[in-house]
Write a structure and sequence with these properties.
By secondary structure, this protein is an all-alpha fold. Helix content is 69%, strand content 0%.
């Protein structure tokens, strides 16, 4: 714990008081997390609001989270949506994703899968793996859209390509069952291996089952594909 005379804290505080939005955001984060100062969620919100008023998207997003979760404030979904919308308008994918969740779950708004899809598509286009995976769920389960396993598979692949282990496990199932994709035990094994390496128990169980029906050559090829796999960068 640093003291009030810490030069770095003094400089950040001075810059924040002078109206620097970046310093205001940083100071808000310090108070929220107790980083170099005593945790103080009231001061965290104060400085986030200062930065947010200047259009600082990260501060707007953090205020949305505070209001959604009731962290240091009374939970207020309307306020959460307000701040998420501010950040989302600046192409913040996390805010767009959270807006989608509000609409999908009917939190503070009527449940609206069409609106959820709009926001998740925006976030997915910016490379948000969670949004890509949720779009996969929508198409797989027919949530507000016509059920379409091919589209579901395509969205799961985008999330899996970034290393989302749950999406990887689902892809394993889809290739193993030939659902939305050509049936392919080797490709299924690859995805199960990657998900299993992240601790997904369902994937590890699936690997054992597959090894009982696959040839040694197929298993070796599946392992090789998993070893050669590299995550893509967020687009």
């Amino acid at each position: 714990m640093t003291t009030d005379t810490d030069p770095q804290l003094e400089q950040i505080s001075a810059d924040a008081e002078a109206g620097d939005a970046t310093a205001q955001f940083i100071l808000g984060g310090m108070y929220e997390n107790g980083d170099g100062v005593a945790e103080d969620l009231t001061l965290a919100r104060h400085w986030y609001e200062k930065a947010a008023a200047q259009g600082f998207a990260d501060a707007q997003f953090n205020l949305g989270v505070m209001y959604e979760t009731g962290n240091g404030v009374k939970a207020d979904y309307a306020q959460a949506r307000h701040w998420y919308e501010k950040a989302a308008a600046q192409q913040d994918p996390a805010a767009q994703f959270n807006l989608g969740l509000l609409y999908a779950d009917g939190m503070g708004v009527p449940q609206d899968y069409a609106q959820a899809k709009i926001w998740w598509e925006k976030a997915a286009a910016l490379g948000d793996a969670d949004a890509q995976a949720n779009l996969g769920v929508m198409y797989a389960e027919g949530q507000g859209v016509a059920q379409d396993f091919v589209k579901a598979k395509d969205w799961y692949e985008k999330a899996a390509a970034q290393g989302d282990p749950d999406a990887q496990c689902i892809l394993g199932d889809m290739y193993a069952d030939g659902q939305g994709a050509p049936q392919d035990d080797v490709i299924a094994y690859k995805w199960f291996s990657l998900a299993g390496s992240c601790g997904i128990e369902e994937a590890m169980e699936a690997l054992e089952e597959m090894e009982s029906i696959m040839t040694k050559a197929q298993v070796a090829e599946g392992k090789k594909l998993a070893e050669q796999w590299k995550p893509v960068s967020r687009r």
